[in-house]
Amino acid sequence: MQMDNPIGDDVRSGRANRRLGLFDEAPDMADATLVLLRVENDGSQGIDRDDYTSPEPHGLTAVFTDRTIRGVSVTQPTDTDHLMDHFTPERGFGYAGNALRIPRVPLNKGDHFKLLVLLSGGDVGREIRLIGGIREGEVHPNRSATPDDKPPLFSRASRLITIMLTVCVVTLATIVVAREDTPPPIGCATGTLRITGSTAFAPVVREVAGKYEGDCAGSTITVDPHGSTAGVRDLDATGAQWHKAGSPPLIALSDGPKPNDMPELRENRIAVSVFALVVNDGVRLRNLSTADVRLLYAGRITNWRQLGGPDLPVHLVSRDANSGTRQVFQRRVLGRGEIANSSVDCVHKDDATAPVTRCELDSTDQVLSEVAELPGAVGYSELNLATRAKGLHILDLDADAPSVDAIEHGRSAYPYREIEYAYTYGQPPADSLVSSFLTYLSRGNGQDVIRTHGHVPCWTPEGMKLCA
Fold first, then answer.
1. Phi-psi map region of 188: left, alpha, beta (phi>0 left; psi -120 to 50 alpha)
2. Chain center to CA of 197
3. How would DSSP label each residue in 115-153?
4. pLDDT tens for residues 182-224?
5. Which one is the CATH code of 273-408: 3.40.640.10, 3.40.50.300, 3.40.50.2300, 3.40.190.10?
6. Residues 426-462: pLDDT tens digits?
């Protein structure tokens, strides 16, 4: 709390403040006060929306004893405006009586925002309680120094750092003398974990899993992707069997949000993935309009010459129904589902009445391989994998090229993109391998891997806005 001042009375004489006269005519505002609250992440890790433990839609509640809230303003968010997007009624922001509802605002380490609260009734200095919790952390008051305070020779932070360094040196000396094995890094957990779901995001998770196992002895992580929908349904079914035993050691990655019929699944937003349409190099087109793409996948374009390309029949190489990449394509680009499957081998029609040849494959790698080998083939893929593939090229949409950098910095409205979610069944224990790995993936060393593979981590200033 950085300020708690009366503004309706003259504090020196006790008489009505005629010089200001701010609330003389306003009902119930004779005892008006202003309180300035600063909410800051002073911990060592970022805070996600899902890290708030309140059962309510909002994250924290500030209760002003014996006072009534008349208005509130958000002021001075850290550096960027992306925090302001969270202060909406839809995210729980608001007040009633003496309670101020503060939304689940994601905060990087050191980020803060301020709330200027106008109140009436009661006296300044009355207790202000902050209700709510943070997973693997705590909500606690900090005392803000006033101009009349004499600062200590060493600040609280300096004293704390000195104590911590002393403890670290003593601990290190003890380990060296005792010649004990080096303990695992802070936050490590042991046990087994299985990760399923998205095939498009699987290369990221495999690399991060390998790094985690290297950093944290005693952990075994298996990456077994079968598509986003299959993954979340596997998690839902496994969790139901584990219901009384807690949360299972299983994470499901999904390109986009889960279906609505799985209320027990808890989301963690990991990254923004960018996808692309790919076409065999024999089709020399470089750009298609969204309208043309919709005609293609409705079976209305049967030969590429109809779009100004070569005289080649169209072959639609699609993903199976479990694919999140396909669902994002249908949701973000087509606005509807694709036409029915008509081929097993992607080459010959099994249904002679079908307008075009369309097949379905189980993974992104299979789609890229088939499109590269089959003249006239078109498909879709995660962007980074498509960029490295040979024998095919990426199509622009409405003259807008898929670019992670342009999307991250707000220079592109390219539509074929989606948030990558990691789902758990309920809330896994804080000391579990599931929780430890998710922290490592989203806020630890996994962020560098996510970037290397061409995704935008949600736990960066730019990513927070895209993932909100």
1. beta
2. 17
3. EEEEEESS-TT--EEEE--BTTS-----PPPPTTS---S
4. 334 447 999 999 999 999 999 999 999 999 999 999 999 999 9
5. 3.40.190.10
6. 999 989 999 999 999 998 889 999 999 989 999 888 8
- Which one, of 85, 76, 79, lies nearest residue 103 by Cα? 85
Torsion 293-299-305-311 (CA) sign: positive
- Return d(Cα 330, Cα 339) in angstroms, integer: 11
Compute the distance between CA of residue 392 and CA of residue 446 in angstroms, rounded to an integer.
30
- Is pTM beyond 0.70? Reply is no
Nearest to 247 by CA among 459, 429, 441, 81: 429
- 379 touches 373 (CB < 8 A): no
- The edge-to-edge listing of strands for the beta sheet with 128-131 is 94-96, 99-102, 60-64, 128-131
The string of DSSP letters for 284-297 reads: ---EE-HHHHHHHT
**Among residues 32, 9, 11, which one has the least CA distance to residue 116?**
32
Give the three-state DSSP class for 256.
coil
Between CA 242 and CA 246 the distance in angstroms is: 6
The residue among 8, 61, 66, 60 whose CA lies nearest residue 34 is 8
Phi, psi of 123 (to 5 degrees): -110, 155
Other beta carbons less than 10 A from residue 224's beta carbon: 12
State the amino acid at position 331 in one-letter form.
Answer: R
For all residues of the chain together, what is the average pLDDT? 84
Q: In this structure, are residues 100 and 70 in contact, taking their beta carbons and an 8 Å threshold?
A: no
CATH class of 191-263+427-454: alpha beta
Contact 424, 434 (CB under 8 A): yes
**The two structure tokens encoding residue 130:** 């902050």
Fold of the 3-131 domain: Immunoglobulin-like (2.60.40)
Q: How far apart are CA 30 and CA 38, in angstroms?
A: 26
Contacts of residue 141, defined as CB under 8 A and 6 or more positions apart, other chains included, come to 1, 130
Query: Distance between CA 339 and CA 285 in Å, rounded?
Result: 23
DSSP single-letter state for residue 30 = T
Vertex 140, ends 134 and 145: CA angle to 5°? 140
* Intervals of the chain under pLDDT 70: 8-30, 76-82, 143-186
